[in-house]
Each structure stands twice: as structure tokens, then as C-alpha cells.
Design brief:
Elements lengths: L2 H11 L2 H12 L5 H5 L6 H13 L3 E6 L2 E6 L2 H31 L5
Antiparallel strand pairs: 1-2
Length: 111
């Protein structure tokens, strides 16, 4: 995942309304745009702007069925970011903790 894609996902997640949309879609996969709009006091146009941001960074997928648009959460971008950070930093800190463990077991003192 490129830096610009990561930035887009993180910027999308930075907005409380967009996080709420993702939570609604996660709880009810295949829900319609109209059902999501009902959970907000803002205009349909404002919600559509949020949806477009979520589509652009691929956090939301949609399927057009007749005149309705059904929404689905795509957690892959979030998982890729998680994997990047946990793999990269997890290995470093895992090594650090293993080093501490071995020093304690050998009775070494770093003073």
C-alpha cells in the first residue's frame, strides 16, 4: 500500500461521521444509502460527500440494485495499515523484549 493510499484511509477515518457510517455498514452489510442517511441530522448531500470519500479510499464498496445502492464495508485497507505497523514495529519490539528476557535470565545488569 502506497503512502498516498495510507494517507487517504487515515484522513477518511479521522472524521467522526465517516467512522459512524462505517460502523452502520459493518452492523448491517448491504444496507442502502437511504438507511444510512436516516442516522444523521445533516443533509443527504453531506452524507453523499462522506460516502464518496469512503469509496475513493476503498473503505466502502457499493452495488447498484435497481434504484438503490447497497453498501458494504471493505476492511482490507485498514488491515493493510495494521499489518504494516504491527509487522514493522512488532519485529523490532519483539527483538528488544527477547534481549531483555535473555539479559534477565543471565543475571546481567546494565547499570
Amino acid at each position: 500500500m502506497e503512502t498516498t493510499e495510507i494517507d487517504a484511509v487515515l484522513q477518511a477515518l479521522a472524521n467522526a461521521d465517516r467512522r459512524k457510517i462505517l460502523d452502520l455498514v459493518k452492523a448491517d452489510p448491504g444496507c442502502t444509502v437511504s438507511s444510512v442517511v436516516k442516522h444523521f441530522d445533516t443533509s443527504r448531500v453531506a452524507i453523499m460527500r462522506h460516502l464518496n470519500v469512503l469509496y475513493d479510499c476503498k473503505l466502502l464498496l457499493h452495488e447498484k440494485v435497481g434504484r438503490s445502492r447497497h453498501l458494504y464495508l471493505n476492511s482490507v485497507p485498514i488491515q493493510l495499515i495494521y499489518d504494516r505497523w504491527t509487522d514493522e514495529y512488532g519485529a523490532f519490539w519483539g527483538g528488544q523484549l527477547a534481549d531483555i528476557k535473555y539479559r534477565v535470565e543471565r543475571g546481567e545488569n546494565n547499570d
